[in-house]
Design a protein that fits this description.
Layout (H helix, E strand, L loop, with lengths): L2 E6 L6 E7 L2 E6 L5 E7 L2 E2 L18 E2 L10 E4 L2 E4 L1 E2 L2 E2 L12 E7 L3 E10 L13 E10 L2 E10 L5 E3 L2 E2 L2 E3 L8 E3 L4 E5 L5 E7 L11 E2 L6 E5 L7 E4 L3 E7 L5 E5 L6 E7 L5 H6 L3 H4 L2 E3 L4 E12 L1
Antiparallel strand pairs: 1-2, 2-3, 3-4, 4-5, 6-16, 7-8, 9-10, 11-12, 12-13, 13-14, 14-28, 15-27, 17-26, 18-21, 18-23, 19-20, 19-22, 22-25, 23-24, 24-28, 25-26
C-alpha cells in the first residue's frame, strides 16, 4: 500500500509532501520549485541529502528547470529577431530558468494500492514576476508518481498565449555519492558532446565523446570523472545508469529529452545526470541558425507539450 501525506517541516516550517511504499520514501517541497529533495530506498539515499534546505534553487534534490535550462550568455537571448533579457524581479537570471525557487500550486495528491501521486503547477502570466524576462504566457504542470519500480516524472506545458513560445525543460537531480564516490559508478550511451568555451557556452559544434569525456563504453566511478558537459543523442529507448553496491538506478526519458548533462563536482556529496531537451544557450544557438543543435522547443499558441522521465530502481 502506498501513502501520500501533507505535513510541516518542524525545523523550518515548510510544507512537505511525503510519499511512501514498496521500500521507497520521497519528499517534496512545493514552496521551493516543487523540488523532490529526498528519495531513499530501503533506508539508503538515492538523492544527495541537502546541505542547506533553506537555499531554494538548484543545489539539491531534483530542481525543475524551465523555460531555459542551463546557461544563457549574459542573460540575453534573441527570439525571431527581438532581443530579450532574462530577468526576475529586476535581477538577471543566467542559469537554469525561472521556476526552481518559486512556489508551485498543489493540484492533486492521491494514494492508491500501487502508487502515490503528487501534482502541481505554476503559471507564467502577464503582470507576474516570471513574465518580466520571459513574456510568453504558459502553464507548467508537473507530476511525480512513486511506485514499486521507482520514481516517474511527467510534465505538461500549455501555451496560454497567442504566439509561438520557445522553451526548454530539464531535471537537475543530485544523486548521492553515499560518502564514497569511488564506489558509485555511472554510464550513459551518449557519444557526442558539445564543444564549449571557458564559460561553458557552446559553439554549436558537436564532438566525439572520447578520452575523459567517454562514459558510453562501460561503468566509470564517479570519483574518477571531471565532468560538467552537455551530451547529445539520447532517445526514449536509451538509459543512463547509476550503480550502487545494492541497487542500479536507470534513467529513461521521452524522445524530447535528447540531451544529457553530466556534472561530477568533487566538492559536493552528490553528482548530477540531467535529462534536458536543449543545449546550453539554446535560444541564441537557434537565433544563429543552429536549429537542430540548439534543441529549442517551439510550442504553437493554444497547444500542449508533454514529456516524461523515469527513474527505475533494481536490486543488484
Amino acid at each position: 500500500m502506498f501513502t501520500v501525506n501533507k505535513g510541516i517541516d518542524e525545523e523550518h516550517g515548510y510544507e512537505v509532501l511525503a510519499m511512501t511504499g514498496a521500500g521507497h520514501e520521497a519528499r517534496i517541497l512545493p514552496c521551493a520549485g516543487f523540488n523532490l529533495f529526498d528519495w531513499r530506498f530501503e533506508g539508503k539515499e538515492i538523492l544527495m541529502k541537502p546541505v542547506d534546505i533553506t537555499i531554494f534553487g538548484t543545489k539539491y534534490g531534483i530542481p525543475i528547470l524551465f523555460p531555459a535550462p542551463n546557461r544563457i550568455k549574459d542573460a540575453t537571448y534573441v527570439w525571431r529577431g527581438k532581443r530579450y533579457v532574462m530577468t526576475k524581479r529586476g535581477k538577471k537570471i543566467m542559469r537554469h530558468g525561472l521556476v526552481s525557487d518559486e512556489p508551485f500550486a498543489l493540484k492533486r495528491l492521491e494514494a492508491r494500492e500501487d502508487c502515490a501521486v503528487c501534482e502541481a503547477e505554476i503559471a507564467i502570466a502577464p503582470g507576474g514576476p516570471l513574465y518580466e524576462g520571459y513574456p510568453f504566457a504558459c502553464t507548467l504542470t508537473v507530476c511525480y508518481t512513486l511506485d514499486a519500480a521507482g520514481l516517474h516524472f511527467s510534465a505538461r506545458v500549455h501555451n496560454d498565449g497567442e504566439e509561438d513560445m520557445p522553451f526548454g525543460l530539464a531535471l537537475h537531480p543530485y544523486f548521492s555519492k553515499r560518502g564514497d564516490a569511488k564506489r558509485v559508478f555511472i554510464k550513459a550511451p551518449v557519444r557526442r558532446v558539445y564543444a564549449c568555451d571557458a564559460e561553458l557556452i557552446p559553439s554549436g559544434e558537436l564532438l566525439d565523446a572520447e578520452g575523459g569525456l567517454c562514459i558510453w563504453d562501460g561503468f566509470h566511478d564517479v570519483e574518477g570523472l571531471y565532468l560538467d558537459n552537455v551530451y547529445r543523442g539520447m532517445t526514449a529507448d536509451m538509459a543512463s545508469e547509476i550503480r550502487y553496491e545494492d541497487i542500479t538506478v536507470s534513467i529513461r526519458a521521452s524522445d524530447c529529452f535528447r540531451n544529457l548533462v553530466v556534472f561530477t563536482p568533487h566538492d559536493r556529496p552528490g553528482f548530477c545526470i540531467e535529462p534536458q531537451t536543449n543545449a546550453t544557450d539554446a535560444f541564441n544557438l537557434h537565433a544563429r541558425g543552429l536549429v537542430d543543435e540548439s534543441g529549442l522547443l517551439i510550442l504553437p499558441a493554444g497547444q500542449t507539450f508533454e514529456g516524461t522521465v523515469d527513474f527505475a530502481v533494481e536490486k543488484r
